[in-house]
Amino acid sequence: MRKALSTKSVISKIAIAMTDKCSASCEMCCFKCSPEGKNTLSTDFMKDVILQASKINGIQSIGFTGGDPFMVFDQLLECSAYAHSLGLRVSVNTNGFWGKNEKRAFELVGKLKEAGVESMSFSADHIHQEYVPIADLKMAMRAVTAHNMLLDVTIMETSTSENIVRMTEALRPEIYQSSIANHPMLPAGNALEKVKEGEFIRYFASKAAYCPFFGMASLNFDGNYYMCCSQFCREIPPLNLGSAHEVKLADLDRRISSNDYLYVMLRRGLSWYVDLAGQLGYEIPQYLCSPCHCCYYVFRNEKLLDEIKETVKNEAGRLRVSHLLGN
Ligand code: SF4
Ligand code: SF4
Question: 322 exposed, middle or buried (CB, 10 Å; 0-12, 13-18, 19+)?
């Protein structure tokens, strides 16, 4: 049963990073997750957020991520069933480490299916596979398709990895049932400290940068809401929308639209900021790894933000008036 709708939100999905615990400790992990992770949201806290989400028109789905949500499987199961009972669609991100044993893998996925989980996303690349053997990942994928659930695979590349070629080959035939997303490794979190600069593929022209926000806000295991679920979100101060212990989910729309920096970014694009920064003598590299990488360059530069504050405020005012006039 889908939930009844009332007023419309720009946010359509909430990604909940339940924990920073993970079976792996990937050298490029944006949130620095590992088996030693100590930050896990409580079930009651997540259920409260899920209940709030179910009452907001426009929010249709919840995605559980981490770390790896299978590290807190009982909580994952309970929160998935709760979200499903409230009419929300449910998806789960995992590295597939639990695919080691066929019987166990089918049992776990069966429980999630019964709880209402519709789709599962896997990560596959040379770094994840240092921790999760291909055979285990394939078994996990097989369990998902055997339960008629949607499956997608995200394959990350570096300048030397050629992962898209190697992984699609290695994951045949299980990958035939999946949607595949391919993106370059981003210099966020661990990657910034541990990966050699030459491994990052800088192909994206900052002059053309836009925000690819498509309505997915996130609740992180640190207890804060973020405007998006980008790998950079915790490193870009304006994207922190406040503690979920204090801020109601229904207030996130207002927090986004009342922030002049975000308001202008969503309407004029990041390229507007890149031009402005250039005019003031700030150097934004001509090519970056993604639009979010550009966002990181612009919005974590406090000196730049301070210098352009008035210009941004005026532009936001102009855009709001224009919007009221129906332009
Ligand atoms: S599997 Fe994902 S969450 Fe876990 S350490 Fe690797 S990148 Fe981080
Ligand atoms: S451009 Fe910035 S706000 Fe937009 S999705 Fe990327 S990190 Fe988030």
Answer: exposed
